Amino acid sequence: MLRLRRSDKSDTVIQGGSRMKVRRVLCGALCGVALVASGCVSLDEHRRLQAANMSLRGQNQNLEADLFDARSLNDSLRTQADALQSQLDAKSTLVMNLQRENDQLSETARAVQATLEEMAGKYQPGDIAIVGPKLPQELDSALKSFASAHGDAVAYDPVTGTVKWKGDLLFALGSDVVVESAMAALSDFVQVLNSPAASGFEVLVVGHTDTIPIKHDATRAKHPTNWHLSAHRAISVGNALAKSGYDWSRICVAGCGEQRPVASNETDQGRSLNRRVEIYLLPRGSIVAAGTQATDQTGS
After folding, report:
1. Distance between CA atoms of 125 and 254, rounded to whole angstroms?
2. Is 180 helix (H, G, I), strand (E, B) or coil?
3. Distance in angstroms (rounded) separating the CA atoms of residues 208 and 230
4. Strand partners for 204
5. Pairing relation of β-strands 276-283 and 251-255?
6. From the CB of residue 202, how many other CB atoms can be counted at a distance below 10 Å?
7. C-alpha–C-alpha distance, residues 60 and 197, integer Å
8. In the structure, what pLDDT confidence band is assigned to residue 4 with cuts at 50, 70 and 90?
9. Is residue 129 pLDDT above 70, yes or no?
10. Which is it for strands 162-166 and 201-208: parallel, antiparallel or unpaired?
């Protein structure tokens, strides 16, 4: 009976040991399965991450290429900007220089304008201001006597040495032909010019008109404007002086047209005064060709 009891215990111990082994085997198998399952998931994730990494690398390379292009474009734009800035600086400098020059010119213009206004205040339109040396006493007296004898046609200005002839007494309206009635006074004037007292002088004959335009076709064909008429009248007077015995080489002529009035052209009386011929006595040699030197033959 005692042995049977020991045998039961031994069987029980044996059965308990077998169960422990089975449990250990099952545990190991489950752990193996778990390890195998765990290893499969890590490989897929690795592959997925590797593919993602390669994609990101490609994107990164593309972005680096874009960045390089952007930097190259930026450098190019900076170069262009620097060039444009240089041009702008140059143009700004040019503008400043031009402004400075413009200011200088404006200042000069103001100074010239002031001078012209000052001169305009001193010299009013009228007779040509030709002032020579004072005429010798003998010549001055002779001219005064001549003007007194022909006071209705002639006026003498001793300050300028000018003998002024009234145009209406020398010419018909619109004509440049000296009227016969004026030839005697011109002849007397030539006697004064040929006197020893006037030997050092020559004459400048200047014609003037009023502002009435030339209307008749026949007259306009000969004298297109008042300027032409004034010059032609001066020439006619010069010819009359020469024909009366005065030396041609001592005669100069000029025409001012309507540009030198001595009275208003709004009235008949004013226009009559403006139609005139003036004869200036000047030292011989004072009217010379360009490039030559004037000489004074008056002895003064």
Report:
1. 17
2. helix
3. 5
4. 252, 280
5. unpaired
6. 21
7. 115
8. very low
9. no
10. unpaired
Q: What is the pLDDT of residue 21?
A: 56
Could you say which architecture CATH assigns to the domain 137-283? 2-Layer Sandwich (3.30)
CB count in 10 Å sphere of residue 271: 20
Q: Which helix (H) or strand (E) holds 255?
A: strand 251-255
- DSSP code per residue over 136-164: PHHHHHHHHHHHHHTTTTEEEETTTTEEE
User: Pairing mode, if any, of strands 251-255 and 201-208?
Assistant: parallel
Contacts of 75 (CB under 8 A, 6+ apart): none
* Whether the predicted pLDDT of 192 surpasses 90: yes
Q: Where are the domains of the chain?
A: 1-123, 137-283
- Among 209, 206, 185, 180, smallest CA distance to 270 is for 209
Q: What integer pLDDT is reported at residue 251 of this predicted model?
A: 96
Q: Cβ-count burial of 106 within 10 angstroms (0-12 exposed, 13-18 middle, 19+ buried)?
A: exposed
H/E stretch holding 104 reads: helix 2-122
Q: In 150-261, which ranges are continuous DSSP H helix?
A: 167-170, 183-193, 217-222, 226-243
According to the model, what pLDDT value does residue 107 have? 84
Q: What would the pLDDT profile of 241-272 be if each residue is shown by its tens digit?
A: 999 999 999 999 999 999 999 999 999 999 99
- Assigned token pair, 26: 């099952």
Burial of 61 (0-12, 13-18, 19+ CB in 10 A): exposed
Structure tokens at 9: 């215990």
Name residue 216's beta-bridge partners. Answer: none
pLDDT of residue 287: 74
